[in-house]
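[agent] plan:
  1. take the single chain provided in the ticket
  2. run structure prediction with default settings
  3. attach structure tokens to the ticket
  4. add a short note for the reviewer (M.T.)
[agent] executing step 1
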Amino acid sequence: MSRSDWRDHDWHLVHAEPQAPALHMALDDLMLDDVAAGRRPPTLRIWEWASSAVVMGRFQSLRNEVDAEAAGRHGIEVVRRVSGGGAMFIEPGNTITYSIVAPLTLVDGMTFEQAYAFMDQWTIEALGTLGIRAWYQPLNDITSSAGKIAGAAQARRGGAVLHHVTMAYDIDAVRMLEVLRVGREKLSDKGTTSAQKRVDPLRSQTGLPRDAVIERMVETFRDRHGLQPDTLRADELARAQALARDKFATPEWTSLLP
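[agent] step 2 finished; step 3 output follows
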């Protein structure tokens, strides 16, 4: 297998209406298989969230990461994704999330660290055009002098790679610390102000609406790599809904590692 370049691929953009957290997990899983099998072209998918969520990494322990009582009290759904990495706290208007699903040739021969840096380059460039000097922080963060901006995770399967990123546009640090145990332990001695400093929202750094930040990101991807508009097909959505119901929305999957 020889390594391919971004421009070797016909990139499609999917930016659908808000969807439930478990459905997002299912769409990533499904698209990974579909791109590997050639049923879907390489895709940049911008997520819209229907509700607040905690998204755990594939190998995380539910009770170690999440205060279930606090999540229930705030109406926050807890889901588990197929990729590794840490837990993400999601609020619909405060989060920018996207996935890139590509043939594995794009990162062929790269270490995970090299692949993360490579897949994040266009985002760092987009942030630069908005006046944010951001950089890749191994293993899977994008950060700036004001604090962390984004966290990434990857999964590779069957000839395709999934790279997804959650960016903090704005953040309710108090609520985040109530729900995420790990964040709470890391920051309890420093207080909430340090939580807000550690994850620095894009809103404060750009002064722009969330939609404008997303628009700039899409423009940058299109300029660098080429991009054409696409939609979720009816059969894709139906298969993803079934997968969400039978796997990603089930307590068995969410509490896979209790």
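[agent] step 4 note for reviewer: The domain at 6-254 is CATH 3.30.930.10 (BirA Bifunctional Protein; domain 2).
[agent] ticket updated
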